[in-house]
Amino acid sequence: MSLAKPWRDLDRSTVGSAPDRYALYELGDADGDTVGFGTGVLRDELKEAVAYGDAAKVRWELADSPDHAERLLADHVEGWGYQTRGNDRQTKVPRPPRE
């Protein structure tokens, strides 16, 4: 499931204007197809993605804390069943318990 946010070009300008806050972020290729999700301090994560990844686009949802970002991630990847970070590894994401 993709974030319902517009794509932004993943470049130094976007990194410079990104909030220095925790977030769930989604990376995309040049066509706007999702190549991965991740969580962390947004500006730091985007710096890493620009330097070492091959994604062309990004969108994000801000979070109030690391735990909040992880909950957002779990909600968004439930249909995918995995998370990619920096487009170089996959990590299984546990589904939240059903109530």
UniProtKB/TrEMBL annotation:
Name of the molecule in the record: DUF7508 domain-containing protein
Domain DUF7508: 1-78
Pfam families the record matches: DUF7508 (PF24348)
Domain of life: Archaea
